[in-house]
Design brief:
Layout (H helix, E strand, L loop, with lengths): L9 H13 L5 E2 L2 H6 L5 H12 L7 E2 L2 H13 L2 H4 L2 H22 L2 H7 L5 H18 L9 H15 L13 E2 L4 E2 L13
Parallel strand pairs: 1-2
Antiparallel strand pairs: 3-4
Helix pairs in contact: 6-8
């Protein structure tokens, strides 16, 4: 690995990255964060990624390590929708934020304070402006309130993930040997538990 230049020309970087990805000797490894990130994309962007990875020029060179599959499966089994759709909690919290701001405004704002900040001429016009802002904001984020189903996205991504998963020979790989001196699994990537050997 080499450290990048501190001053980066984004256009040049993208061109170099594209060239590296196209190179037939480049192998691409997808970890758990990328697998989860795909759930946070819109359907069209997710389809673009799936189509790119499925292209015959790339698919043989794209891999998901076994440990990433295990880690991802743990998230699925936990039913952690907040992991797949973290925006949902922020959108839900918006109602509470609106209530607190309107309460604070109704108590604090008066004509004297408005004159100091040159925001509105009267208290009534300012309160109406706050109402209008939240109406616009709630309408703008309404698409984010749609109930998203991880199960539907599973139908698209699970087959792809399974195809890309590296095959593991737990009997023949030296990396999976049991270290008899301490009775624990010799391979311990992050996200794995340690297996005790009787």
């Amino acid at each position: 690995m080499q450290l990048p230049d501190l001053e980066l020309d984004l256009k040049v970087f993208r061109e170099r990255l594209a060239a590296v990805l196209r190179a037939p000797d480049t192998h691409i490894f997808i970890d758990t964060s990328v697998m989860i990130w795909l759930y946070r994309l819109g359907a069209s962007a997710r389809d673009n990624f799936v189509n790119w990875v499925s292209d015959s020029n790339y698919k043989p060179r794209v891999h998901i390590p076994v440990w990433a599959m295990h880690e991802f499966l743990g998230k699925v089994q936990d039913g952690a929708n907040n992991v797949f759709f973290p925006h949902a909690s922020a959108v839900k919290a918006l109602g509470g934020v609106e209530e607190k701001i309107k309460s604070a405004v109704s108590l604090l704002i008066d004509e004297q304070l408005l004159k100091q900040h040159h925001i509105a001429k009267t208290r009534e016009s300012y309160l109406l402006r706050i109402d209008r802002i939240f109406r616009i904001l709630n309408a703008a984020v309404s698409p984010l309130k749609a109930k998203l189903s991880a199960e539907e996205i599973h139908q698209t991504l699970f087959p792809l993930f399974n195809e890309l998963a590296l095959k593991s020979d737990i009997f023949g790989s030296s990396g999976n040997r049991v270290d008899e001196s301490n009775g624990k699994c010799g391979l311990k990537p992050h996200g794995y538990c340690v297996f005790e050997v009787s």
